[in-house]
Amino acid sequence: MAKSLNSIAQKLMETGKGILAADESEGTIAKRFAKINLPNTLDLRRDYREMLFRSTTAMQNYISGVILTEETLEQQAADGTAFRAILADADVIPGIKVDRGAFPMPGDSGEKITEGLDGLRQRLTRYADLGAGFAKWRAVITINDVAPTRNNIRANAHALARYAILCQEAGIVPVVEPEVVGDGEPGNHSLERCAAVTGEVLENVFKELRLAGVELSGMLLKPNMVLPGVNSRERPTVEEVAQRTVSVLREHVPAAVPGIAFLSGGQTDEEATAHLSAMNQIAGKPWPLTFSYGRALQNVALRTWAGRRENFPAAQAAFTHRAHMNSLAALGTWSGELDKAA
Q1: Helix locations, the chain, DSSP H
Q2: Choosing from 24, 50, 111, 177, which is the catalytic residue?
Q3: The pTM is what?
Q4: Active-site residue, 71 included
Q5: Which CATH class is domain 2-341?
Q6: pLDDT of 103-146, one tens digit each?
Q7: Which of 241, 252, 250, 232 is closest to 187 using CA atoms?
Q8: Would you list the domain boundaries of the chain?
Q9: Which end of the chain is more exposed for a tag (fewer CB within 10 A), N or C?
């Protein structure tokens, strides 16, 4: 089992490729559609995902896996072709978001705990039968004047470990996502505060993973980058963010993990690409680093599509461009000049 899990993880970390996060909940995609004045309907959600998945050049050359929702895992394109078949034709591994969302943690700290463990073993069996090769569970760690608390870090780390071992039992690679969020209130924490919290979170997560018996060679990590809060006056350089992030990872992530796929965490498209490329220019890392982006891959494509099937080619070109740029970042060869020229 460990060998086959490792094989899936290695394929997801294929050189120059990354993971497309297309697992927006109905509420999240409703907000994104609202920004371009679109109603949140089943047909429009289907058309949008179809546009992305049928971006042949992007999917074949730059994407190794796609995180889906339950709806999308079983959905068909307008012509009746299952999305799973479209992904298989591009040699892309389908994944599935399995958590049920982050909910307020009891107490006054403004923290959240991710739920969804009840019935997860049975759901994972079904997802595996539908062809899901990997899964994702997101824990949200808030930074404010009183948070994160040790209780919240421990509770989220424990839930991540329980999720991960259930995934491996079902033959599914768990993508473990502990996200230290930078946009909570007041959102003015420093780069060093983020680094300290990220390190503490990762230390606790890997402690719980080991206690649960999770095979580290059969999982992937999806962490935040180390960044100051959104309302901080601190403006670190791209190189400072890259060095600080890699330093924290070196201290707390075992070399046995097959790879790290970053979330974009509210960065602009180009910021997420620039930081990833700078990290890949740092020598001596024991694991490959790539992307697992949602908004940072989809923003321009979503606006270009605008709910119209006739806009598919232009939207697919926009998506392919961002996927290509992030592929270069995963190789450490991206530059802003190249991005603008392309």
Answers
A1: 2-12, 26-35, 42-53, 56-62, 70-73, 83-89, 120-129, 150-169, 191-212, 238-252, 269-280, 295-305, 312-331, 336-341
A2: 177
A3: 0.97
A4: no
A5: alpha beta
A6: 999 988 899 999 999 999 999 999 999 999 999 999 999 999 99
A7: 232
A8: 2-341
A9: C
